[in-house]
């Protein structure tokens, strides 16, 4: 693993302090620093510790409640709202990510598993499909979400009543539905999933060479009376996005945009009306009949996203589509970059940074996609910053 150029400028105790601060988001106690230094075998300011020792020391910070209640909560919360702000209440989306990281599970399940994490205490408001109060109470309690007696894993279907085949990790949580299934055409859910889990917005995956046969009727083929706009711009996003977003055809949010009211609605085998709005914009366009999705981006320039050759590239519903995204190389690289920025406090910019990201991706995959590995790798690399 590469070291930063400034590593030698920081003494061992300062390195331990930085690793702890960056992971836990709160200062370490003297006892915690002493424990880290003992592992690093560097009880003076000489840099004698190996990266392996430093990583073992950094793992102590994973036991801090600050890692779960502060660092992870602040990193993930912007993914749960269109404003992309961290100044929002804890919710089922964020809690589920925290739980998957805490338990060292295969993090790819975040987009397709029948899983949700809920507060275990009976003093909290009960989980409700129509309210976020359960998580507001959990956050207000200040309890350590790194404790399995505080935040517990459950099957999403047993908690929400959604049939297991319709669950798709955080994509079918109440928070995600409230933010991205409300009003609109459900393309928002696809766009923000792409941004949050593959680090690409639609402009970055435009490909005008894909077949436009699945573009919905609401997309004008001559916007402003100029068909060139459709051929040179609109088709670039919609030709690939619409066949993938079809996976969400049976999902809806019952509340009004901008309000706290509402819940996720799922109508098996019945396409939501929003998929047929503005059909007269181009009545010869695609009329969505079901939730069958296809990944047209497996060919062309977006094949560089590294799709899993062991998957078929098509299927029905959000669960299999979430797996398609989560099993891509772009997903793994994106999660590593997000952790790198969270821990190192800057985006990877230098050649050494990019080499480190590649190394972290390799380690992430080798650990069966355990996100704890990514945090400790980043902390070790940036301990001299």
From TrEMBL:
**What name does the UniProt record give this protein?**
DUF1585 domain-containing protein
What is the taxonomic lineage of the source species?
Bacteria, Pseudomonadati, Pseudomonadota, Gammaproteobacteria, Pseudomonadales
